[in-house]
Design brief:
Elements (H helix, E strand, L loop, with lengths): L4 H14 L3 E2 H8 L3 H17 L4 E6 L2 E6 L4 H8 L4 E3 L2 H13 L4 H8 L4 H9 L3 E6 L7 E5 L1 H6 L14 H9 L11 H4 L3 E3 L3
Antiparallel strand pairs: 1-3, 2-3, 4-7, 5-6
Helix pairs in contact: 1-3, 2-3, 5-7
Length: about 200
Amino acid sequence: MAVSKKAKSALEALMYIWGEPLEVKAAAEALGIERSEALECFNELMAEYDQEGRGLMIRRVGNGFQFATRPEYADEIERLCTPVKTRKLSQAALEVLAIVAYKQPVTKSEIDSIRGIKCDRVIEGLMKKELVEEQGRSSGIGRPILYGTTDTFLKLFGFTTLKDLPEIEDIEDVLAMEHADVDHADREEDFIPDMQVSLEELT
């Protein structure tokens, strides 16, 4: 299928003005083209930006695409944007977020059971940051709320889909080792240490 230059140019404009990941379906409707053609436009643009070595890149987030800066220019961007208000997720928030990411959809009681401590306030905080969201209700007794991660989570931690999460054998074992102050120097693949990153202040 031949993708027109005009369609790709229009798609660039849409991504620029939209800001958030632009879903293929929405892009196709806005451009008046088929979804398959819109997807091909996204893929061709991604390849072109990579081949030309531009300062911006196009990355996929879930079912959408968005502009992003290239990691190799992080230092220059940081110098330009300093000072930037940042805050780190607390250890409790990191633990709950890791559990939700790997166990989702998961209930509060299941999270409490894994951590051995109530997580109500932590869940509320993660929801305010739009990292965690409600995803329906369990069929169990009382039909408790199920929680899962969001597209914002994927975007902030650089994942395209949940399949990109680092593989671990058992999240409970990782948390137990974290509490035991085990040295993680040789365990860079673990998810929780990888999440020790500064996040831009979310408004």
